[in-house]
Write a structure and sequence with these properties.
Helix content is about 35%, strand content about 20%. The chain is α/β, with parallel strands linked by helices and about 270 residues long. The two termini are about 35 Å apart. The model has no long low-confidence stretch (mean pLDDT about 95).
Length: about 270
């Protein structure tokens, strides 16, 4: 399996927790390569520093304890970003420019089948249930966006979980078309909107592969995206899986405790080393 994450050094907590959930929920060991796109973009913000190799190595060590056939590859894509997306119309988008990095995937020697994941996801079951889906006839497979499929269109997808057929994507030029849109047009949801507008053919997946609001018995991936709460008054909160206390207090989840306990142990070891 090949999985892609994107982000700066602050994405460490997300990739570590998501990665631990993946390897701990595998029914049996299997080869796993975690690809991480990162970049330095301090011209936009002093906080936009690349993930360090030390952090990538720490993630690899933690995952290999459960799945020895795991490796983590860190890519500094700064030059590619500056060449293809520098000062684009969406560089100040609603999250960060790092969400745009997946649009560079066709420029690197990635395998023909690639699972892109936002860092704020947790595997609840064997992720092979998703990865082994047939995407041979499409550019990618994705689940509906929880709010967007009501507010925008019935098949409006959430781009936080995307199973790419990279061979087909290179043939249709979906990433190149999306980059061009990003460069010249301000879009509501940046790269998500650009990918949707550039799609030739996609496969719709059941919500269990990207549950953005609730956790069901058959959920494969729980996506901790920003959520609307109604009590004590209508408001949104952006609770991530590494916000351990809030995961317990707000959601009442205990099913991730084994993963989060190990995450905290790894973090403690990091603090001790520093």
């Amino acid at each position: 399996m090949d999985i892609l994450f994107c982000g700066n050094d602050k994405v460490f907590d997300g990739v570590l927790t998501a990665g631990l959930s993946i390897v701990r929920r595998l029914e049996k060991p299997r080869p796993l390569t975690v690809h991480i796109f990162t970049m330095e973009l301090t011209r936009v913000s002093p906080n936009y520093l690349p993930m360090t190799q030390a952090h990538a190595d720490r993630i690899e060590a933690a995952l290999r304890r459960h799945n020895p056939q795991t490796k983590v590859i860190l890519y500094d894509v700064t030059d590619s970003y500056e060449k293809h997306l520098k000062e684009n119309a969406n560089e100040d988008c609603y999250c960060s420019p790092y969400t745009l990095l997946r649009l560079l995937a066709d420029l690197y020697p990635l395998p023909d089948k690639l699972l892109y994941l936002d860092a704020d996801v947790m595997a609840c079951k064997d992720i092979g249930l998703l990865y082994d889906q047939d995407v041979s006839a499409v550019e990618y497979a994705a689940a509906r966006d929880h709010y967007g499929h009501f507010l925008v269109s019935p098949n409006y997808i959430n781009a936080g979980v995307l199973l790419f057929n990279m061979k087909r994507c290179r043939e249709t030029g979906i990433f190149e078309k999306a980059r061009e849109l990003i460069r010249v047009k301000k879009l509501m949801f940046a790269d998500q909107s650009a990918l949707i507008r550039s799609t030739t053919k996609k496969k719709m997946l059941p919500h269990i592969f990207n549950d953005q609001k609730f956790l069901y018995k058959n959920t494969v991936i729980r996506h901790f995206s920003k959520r609307l709460f109604y009590l004590p008054y209508p408001h949104t909160e952006n609770i991530k899986q590494w916000h351990v206390d809030k995961v317990h207090q707000k959601f009442g989840y205990t099913c991730f405790d084994d993963i989060l306990e190990e995450y905290l142990q790894v973090k403690d070891r990091e603090v001790t080393l520093v």
